[in-house]
Amino acid sequence: MASRGGFSSKIGFIAAAAGSAVGLGNIWQFPYVAGENGGAAFLLIYVAWIFLIGLPIMVGEVAVGRNTGANPFGAYKKLGGKKWAWVGFFGILCGVMILSFYNVVAGWAFGYFVQLSFGDLLQQKELSNYFYNYTADFSDNLIYSLVFMVLTGFIVYRGVQKGIEGTSKVLMPTLFIILILIIIYGLNLPNAADGVAFYLVPDFSLINGATIYSALGQAFFSLSLGMGALITYGSYISKEDNIVNSATWVTISDTLVAFLAGLMIFPLVFSQGQSPSEGPGLVFIALVGIFQNMPPLLGKLVGCSFFLLLCFAALTSTISLLEVPVAFLVDQKKWSRKKSVIVMSAIIFALGLPSMLSYGASDLFSNFAYYEGTSKTFMDVVQDLFFVVSLPLGGFLLSIFIARHWKAKSLSEEISQGYASYKGSVIEKYFNLMITMVCPVVLGFMFILTVLQKFFGVSIF
Ligand code: TRP
Fold first, then answer.
1. Which of 19, 117, 220, 262 has its CA 20 to 30 A from that of 42?
2. In the predicted model, what is the mean pLDDT of residues 31-37?
3. pLDDT exceeding 70 applies to what percent of the chain?
């Protein structure tokens, strides 16, 4: 056991799991997906998914992880035999694919940091063009995401406590403070109120099937659920920790950061007369515009700190994504941590190459497929397949696994360690109901609807 490593304390786990949860998903993706899907209406559905489905699934994943002390493949295999092990393996595969594109976007954030600090980004007039030219430049993509991958690999190589826990504990609070400062600034700009209204006053006519399943996929992605990242992190915590309590903290922090990111971005977008449905460029374009309007030195300072922190938020997430396949190789194949990190990082980086070519550098990957009435980039396809569809599917399989195979009783047994009054409590009844009844039904149903709507153009709502 000693060689697997573990977190030093409850706070260590919360910081690392919150670090995994809070990332580009919250600050980059949540605002643009919300912007494309009706703002406040999306926010409402998102929060409902997070607490009704996300939190119970998180508790389930962490419990399975702590009980088995293994990576997702090992965990399912230990409790469910060979037949279930493939579920864990599929999760690991999703993680690998997610990291392959995630690392590219992290590279954009890193590149923006460098351009703001040392380049002429703050003097650019056409920020939207700048973003599209920038993401179309293959060599920039290549260099910045390479640096990011190497950094991620280095931290994961250093191990659970020194690398993952130590990094997360410092970076998470700093990010929070910067967000609050930009929000205060943004709320005082002209037309900020329109942005706040878009974000907080729901227009229910905007809710349709697409809103509902995008919000579900986004909820799973943001909480890092559905592929076993939290089985892996759960395997590093002690029997004295209260799983329900820790998972609740992680869920609240993640939701708070996504919420604040929206509150930061929409006033800025509306005050500059931009469209909230700009897509993946939203945060990059709107924020730089704001930094340009500040007095030069201040703009540079705030801009650099913002993108630096975005990189840090991304880094605590990329390390959690890389940790999963690495733990798999260390546990199952008995490879050394070093060899596992080097081999996995190289594979994932290579798998990311088509995503780097997805924004104009190559026509093939920029117009890779056509469905849902639009042309999709390679990166879009990877996102649709490996998170919008697969993460809720992973949650579905986990809940079925607990309901049918591991059983609610074993789940309660595991959770009650570190939480003495759990058994017999209302909370126990609630989680049992959600994990063994509600999640399997709702997630199974949503999986079918999502696939039908996305790939077959059949929409029930
Ligand atoms: N949750 C992270 C974010 O919001 C991304 C992430 C990290 C992730 N680990 C994961 C997503 C595991 C799915 C599964 O940016």
1. 19
2. 93
3. 97
Pocket test for ligand 1, best of 27, 99, 102 (most atoms within 8 A of CB): 102
387 CA to centre of ligand 1 in angstroms: 10
Q: Which one has a higher pLDDT value, 117 or 175?
A: 117
Q: Which of 105, 148, 224, 311 to mutate to test the pocket of ligand 1 (most atoms within 8 A of CB)?
A: 224
Residues 6+ apart with CB under 8 A from 174: 309, 312
Number of domains making up the chain: 1
Q: Is residue 5 part of a domain?
A: no
Nearest protein CA to atom 12 of ligand 1, as residue: 224
Task: Name, of 4-13, 163-172, 293-302, the range with top average pLDDT.
Answer: 293-302
Is 461 a domain residue? no
- The CATH number linked to 31 is 1.10.4160.10
Backbone φ, ψ for residue 77 (5° rounding) = -65, -40
Query: What's the rounded Cα separation, in Å, for the pair 165 and 151?
Result: 15
CA 29 and chain centroid, separation? 9
* Amino acid residing at 408: A
Residue 363 lies in a domain: yes
Is residue 16 very low, low, confident or very high in pLDDT (cuts 50, 70, 90)? confident
DSSP characters for 180-198?
Answer: HHHHHHHHTSTTHHHHHHH
Mean pLDDT computed over 348-363: 95
In terms of phi and psi (left: phi > 0; alpha: psi -120 to 50; beta: otherwise), the region of 190 is: beta
Domain residue limits at 143 = 10-456
Banded model confidence at residue 452, pLDDT cuts 50, 70, 90: very high
CA atoms within 13 A on the CB side of 117: 11
CB atoms within 10 A of CB 239: 10
Extended beta strands in 337-452, E state: 369-371, 374-376
Confirm whether pTM is higher than 0.85.
yes
